[in-house]
Fold these 4 entries.
Entry 1:
Amino acid sequence: MRHTRRAIRAAHATGHALVAAACGLVGLLRYAAETGRTVRIAYTKEDGTASIRDIRPEQVRRSKAGDLYVRAHDFLRDAARTFRLDRITALEAA
C-alpha cells in the first residue's frame, strides 16, 4: 500500500497522471469511433473559449509533435473537425 501511494504521488509530481488520464480518454474515444457512438465533450479552445460539443469520433491520432487529436464529426458545426485531447475537459455519452 505504501508503495502504491508513493507511485501515485510520483506520477502526479512528474505529470504522469495526465498521461494516464489521456490514455483513458483515448480508449473511450476509440471505442466511440469503433461503435459509431456520439459523445458530448467540454472543449476549451486555445484562446480560452469553452464550449460543449456533441461529436461522433472517427479517428484518434498523434501528431508529429506528439500531441493527441481526435478527428470527429461535430454536430454543432455539422462538419468534420479536429480536437486536441488535452483541451477536452470532460466527456460523456450523448
Note: Residues 15-20 have pLDDT under 50 and may be disordered.
Entry 2:
Amino acid sequence: MHAVEETVQARLILSTHRSARLRVTLAYRPEDPLAVRMGFPAEFSLDEPAEGPGRNDGRDDSRDAGGPEAGPDIEWVFARQLLTAGLELAAGVGDVHIRPAAGRRTMVELRAPEGTALVQFDTSDLRRFLWRSRLAVPEGEEHLYLDADRALAELLG
C-alpha cells in the first residue's frame, strides 16, 4: 500500500486564444481511497492572501509557507471515480466538472466563489495516474482500505 504522486504539465485556459502552462501535482493516498488530489501553485490562486481555511468548496486550502520544496499551495480533492468517468464523458456536479476534449485532451473545470478555472490536461497523463492509483488500491476494493474509526474521529474533530 503506497501513495501515488505525479507532477504533470497542464494549461490554464485564460481566454479563447490565451493560456498559461502550469505544473499540477496529482496525488492518491490509499488511506483516503475514494479521493484524488490536484495541487496547483499558489500564483494561480484567485484567493485574496488574507483568506484561509474553512471554506466548504471542494478545496483543501492547506498553505505551507515553507518555500519551493513545500509542495503545492492549493489542493482540490474530489472523487477518483469522477476523474475516471470524465475521461470518457462529461461528468461532475458542483465544484468540479471533467470532460473529454479534442486532440486527446481532458478539461477540468474548478468552480469557487472567487471564480472558475478551466485546466487542460493530456488525457494520457491522467490515465497513467489513474492506472498507478489502481495498482495501489484496485477499483471496487476501496472499502477494504477505509478506516471508519479514523474517518469518524476526523469528522467529529
Note: Confidence is low (pLDDT under 50) at residues 50-57, 59-72.
Entry 3:
Amino acid sequence: MDNDSLSLYKQRYHLLCSLCDNLTEVVKSDLSDVSHIDRISFRVKDPGSFFVKATATLPDGERKYSNPLREIEDQIAGRVIVFYSSDIATVSGVLEETFRKVESEAREPEDVSSFGYESYHHIFLIPEHHKPDGWELEESMPVTFELQIRTLFMHAWAEPQHDLGYKGDGEISRETQRKLAWVAASAWGADRVMDEIYREIMKR
C-alpha cells in the first residue's frame, strides 16, 4: 500500500500543483489591500516528503494515516509572512472570510520559560470552485490545505532552525543548545518590541 500511495500521489501531483496556483492567486488577491505583508507563498509537498509522512507510525506501532492520500492535511501548504505580530489577527480574519476553517492553532513552546518555534497554523477546506479540472475524477483527494502565518522574526528563527535540525548528526552539545535558546529568545523579544514600537508610533 505504501508504494501504491506514492505512485498515486505522483500521478495526481499535477492536479495539486494546479490547485496550489489557484490558492496562491486567491490569497494574494484577498490580501492585496492588507498592509505589512512581506511575502505569500504556497508549495505542494514533494513526493519524498509525502512518503515519509504517509508511512509514519504512532508510538504503539500503528500507522498514523489509514488513507494518507486523503488525510494528510499539508499536501498543499501556504505561508504568509507579516511584519508585526499584531498583523497576524488581521490576516487571519481576512482569510477566514474566504475559506471555511477546520481548525486553528498557535504553535509555541508549552513551557513558559522556553523559547523556540512559533507559528499560527490554519487548516482550511479546499473550496470546490478552486479545484482544477479533473480533480473530481480522482479518488481520495485531500479535502483541506494548511496555511501558516508568521512574523518576520518567527520566520527568521524557524527556517534556519529547521535546516539545522535536518543536518545535525546525533546530539548537540549543551553549549550549542544554549546558543540556540539565546537566538530563539532574542527573536521572541525582538518580535514583541517591534510590535510595541509600531503601535506606539501609530498612536501619534
Note: The radius of gyration is 19 Å.
Entry 4:
Amino acid sequence: MNHPPNPPSDEALPVASLRIAFFSDSLPERNGTGAYYHDLLPHLLPRVEAAEVIQPRPRGRFSLLSVPLPGDPTQQLVTPSLPRIRRQLRALRPNIIVCVTPGPFGLLGMWAARRHRCGFISAYHTDFEGLADLYWGPLKKRIVNGFMRGANRFISRRSGTVLVNNSGLADDVTALGAPAVDVMGTPLEPGFLNTPAAASPTALRQVCFAGRLAAEKNIDSFIDAARQHPALQFVIGGDGPLRKSVQAAADELDNLSYRGWLSREALRALIDESSLLVLPSHMETFGTIALEAMARGRPALVSEHAGIHDWPDLADGLFTLPAGQSVADALTSLVAEPAAVWQRKSSHAREAAEALNRRTVDQWLTVLARHARGGRA
C-alpha cells in the first residue's frame, strides 16, 4: 500500500526535545556519507535531547546479504541486526528518524518510523546510478540501477522532505516523488574548526589529495601532474580499489608519496603541511574534503563537477578546475600566483567554512524540529 508521507507538525517541536535516529548503510568515516553524520552528531548533541546513528558495525556479524557497492568491493550493503537495533530504538525513543541511504538500514529506518509513529525524512547523498554507469556492464548496471531507483523512489515518496547537498539534485528527487526538498550544507568535524590552523601558505610548494582511491576521483590526473611538476611535492592519502596503482606511482616518482588511509588527526596534519588540496573528481555530490581544507585555511582546486560550487559563499576559498583542463595545467597557473593571493585566499577559505558550518547546523535543527512528532516521551 502506498502510504502518504508524514506531514510536518503544525508547530515545530522545541529543538531541546528532539530525539533523532539516523539510519545509514555506511560505516562511520568510510566514505563521504559516513563521515557526514559522524561530523554532524557532535554539533547536534549539545542542543538536542538525544541523537544516534544506527549503522553497520565495522566488525559485524556474518551477513546473509552482502552486496558490494559500485567501484569498491570493500564497501557492502549488509543485513541489519534486528535485535541490536530494537534495543537501540527502545533506549532512544526517537521522535524523528532520518533515512540516510537506500539500502537495508535506510529501508529499516522507514519501517521503524511508522512503527514508532515518529517523523520521517530522508537524505539523497550519492548518485549510485552514475557510479554504476562508470563501473558495471549493461546487465548488472540495469539490475542495480533498477533496485536503487526503486528504493529511492519508495523512500522519497514517504518522506516529509528529502535533503540534498546541492541544488542540482533537487530535480532528481522531485522526479522520484519527494513532496518537498531541502538543500543542506555540510558540517565539519569539530577538530577541523577548534584545532589552531597553521600559518597561511605564501607559495605553492606541496599539493595533496585525500579521499577514496577510485576511478570517479580522477586520481590519474593528479599523478600526471606530479610527473609534470617535479619541483612540487605531491601527497596522496586514502584507500580504495586503485590503491595498488597509486602505490606504484609513488614508488616511481620521487616527488609523490602515498600515506595510506588517514585518521582525522593525520588528515588535518596533511592539509596543514600542504599549500593546496586538489579534488579533480569526475563525479562529486559535494566534496567535503575541500571544505575541510578550507577550514584549515587552505584553498582547494576542485573540479567544476563538484556540488561545492553550488555554494557561492565558498567561492573565494576555491579554485575551479574546468572540464577538460588537466590538474597539471591548472597548477602551472597557480605556481605563478604571488604570496598576497595565497594569503587572501586562505583567509577567505577559513571564514567561509566556519560560516557554512554554523548555518548548516542551524538549518538541520530547524528541519528536524519541523518534521518531528511529539508524544514519544
Note: Residues 339-371 form the longest helix (33 residues).
